[in-house]
Amino acid sequence: MKCIERPKVVLVPYPAQGHVTPMAQLALALRSHGFDPVIIVPDFIHRRIMSSQIGQDDGIVFMSIPSGLDENEPINFFTIAFAMESNMPIHLEHIISRLDDDEDGGVACVIVDLVASWAIEVANRCGVPAAGFWPAMLATYHLITSIPDMINVGLIDEFGIPQHQGEGCFLPGQSLLSTTDLPWLVGDSASQKSRFTFWLRTFDRLRALQWLLANTFPEGYDDQKQNYHSIKSTQDYPLIFQVGPLTRYSGNKNPSFWEEDRSCLDWLDKQKPGSVIYVSFGSWVGTIGEEKVNELALGLEATRRPFIWVISPTWRKGLPMGYLERVAKQGKLVSWAPQKELLQHEAIGCYLTHCGWNSTMEAIECGKSLLCYPVSGDQFVNCKYIVKVWGIGVEMQGDGWRDVEEGVKRVMEEVEEMQERALELKERVFGDKGSSRAAASLTAFVSDLCRSIY
Ligand code: UDP
């Protein structure tokens, strides 16, 4: 790091929409602190965001590194994990060294998504300070950092498999969460063990970090009195800065991987206020199975309410025969939507969501009531907070068509109370106080970083 005029900050997100988006938002925030942000993504993502709404015009550079993955083959959690550990490090090392030697400024810091923890070791090799980035709730982060405690008390075995099941099995320090909410419990037992190994490796690496920027806000109601500029855990883990929700820095701009179908906005304009169900399972969730898609489709139809459903080609295979023709007037099915603009629309009355963290924060920002249909990873944790802590949504009681119909009915019946709480939460998180708290957190990190490097 040579020059102090306009230092670069290199940001390494996990290569998925729900990670690149908040990292781009963080880049925008750091830009206003005098840094030149460079976001590193693998080739297969770089091609998709070439014409992204966030980029050069905002002073943000996206750079590509080879992943070694064949795009004609399926790309999933495991192939990406392999590429991150085996193929990408050497290329990142070259880029950081080159940027650090640039005439017009060196690299002040590498900010590494903890789901891409491989890059921490690269930053260390390059002798550049590294900060972690946690794109989800702090409650989920604490699940990862309490892995040793959970093993010690026998809640899980050394492979991460729960030894006690059920709602009553609360996790250390988290009376709301149980062993059913652990984020690595996805797929069959081999998949769960493999994901657990991934998180163990992340846990080992994050202990070396000095700072962690979390895309979140004080999540509970009773802990508001604490000073959230930074939190030092009782153990020797990084200092945590709650800088979220970062969605406030990007407005409606989105580094979208797919083209948005904007015709749904015109369609919404024709609907009555509060009447429409918006359905989306985010960008990444694997299919819930054709049977459940079928039930979901029938349930939406049974509500007799207008709906917009973001549905990918794989999911479409589960639609009932003749469905598209039957719901032609009632529903609009699209492949990718301008989600935040949709959520701002007054016609949306109920958001049926998988409870992805970005989607949850966008819903809070837009004050919407939620019908929760968590599928995997941290979505169960987010769902608990939506339903039990913030009271801005209800959870589906099953996955049959009647459960969908019943869930929508419950949201619509309780919509006034939920809306009131949603607006309160929005004020707490996005109002003046919440915004200055998040801004002060980021400033505190930048000051700490500058003190440590200059
Ligand atoms: N999103 C979008 N259009 C869509 C569906 C999703 O722009 O049709 C965006 C959404 O606004 C959010 C992101 O994709 O910012 C999904 O992130 P999230 O963390 O909610 O879920 P994930 O995709 O990671 O499961």
Descriptive report:
The chain has helices at residues 17-31, 43-46, 77-100, 118-126, 138-145, 147-152, 189-206, 263-269, 290-303, 313-316, 323-326, 339-344, 357-366, 379-389, 401-413, 415-430, 432-453; strands spanning 8-12, 36-42, 61-65, 107-113, 130-134, 170-171, 174-178, 211-214, 239-242, 276-280, 307-310, 331-334, 348-353, 370-372, 393-395. The protein has two domains: 8-253 and 431-453, 3-Layer(aba) Sandwich (Rossmann fold), CATH 3.40.50; 263-430, Rossmann fold, CATH 3.40.50.2000. The longest helix is centred in the N-terminal third of the chain and has 24 residues, at 77-100. Mean pLDDT is 91; it is low at 222-234. The protein is globular. 42% of the residues lie in helices and 15% in strands. The relative contact order is 0.11. Helix 2 links the parallel strand 2 and strand 3 (61-65). Helix 9 (290-303) packs across helix 15. The structure holds uridine-5'-diphosphate (UDP). Uridine-5'-diphosphate binds next to helix 1, helix 12 and helix 13.
Ions and ligands: uridine-5'-diphosphate
Oligomer: single chain
Q: What helical percentage do the residues reach?
A: 40-55%
CATH topology of the largest domain: Rossmann fold
Structural domain count: 2
Largest beta sheet: strand ordering: 3-2-1-4-5-8-9
The overall average pLDDT, rounded, is 91
Rounded to the nearest angstrom, the distance between the terminal CA atoms is 9 Å
Our Rg estimate from Cα atoms comes to 22 Å
* Low-pLDDT runs: 222-234
Protein structure class: alpha/beta
Q: Find the CATH superfamily of the largest domain.
A: Glycogen Phosphorylase B
